[in-house]
Amino acid sequence: MKRKLTLLLTCLLASISLTIAQTSKKVTGVIFSEEDNQPVIGASVVIKGTSIGTTTDLDGKFVISNVPSSSRT
Q1: How many domains does the chain have?
Q2: Domain residues for 66?
């Protein structure tokens, strides 16, 4: 009985942690110049209404991790 209870609690905690881990989003993209269609280096990208952001790399690419699931992208 004790072993079954331990197994049940372990499964419950594992499922809760997986649910919590999936409450954030990851936003990726590439920014190109409208004038010459070249990648924009060092552009600031910020999630509207937050202080979460990053800058683009040498290829104009960006990745923002841990975006709250309530944020609109």
Answers
A1: 1
A2: 25-73
Per-residue confidence band for 48, with pLDDT thresholds at 50, 70 and 90: confident
For 22, 23, 59, 72, 73, the CA distances from 41, given in Å and listed in that order, are 31, 30, 7, 24, 21
Q: How far is CA 2 from CA 8, 9, 10, 60, in A?
A: 10, 11, 12, 56
Residue 49 confidence (pLDDT): 84
Q: What is the pTM of this model?
A: 0.63
Q: Is residue 29 a part of any domain in this protein? A: yes
Task: Answer whether residue 61 is part of any domain.
Answer: yes
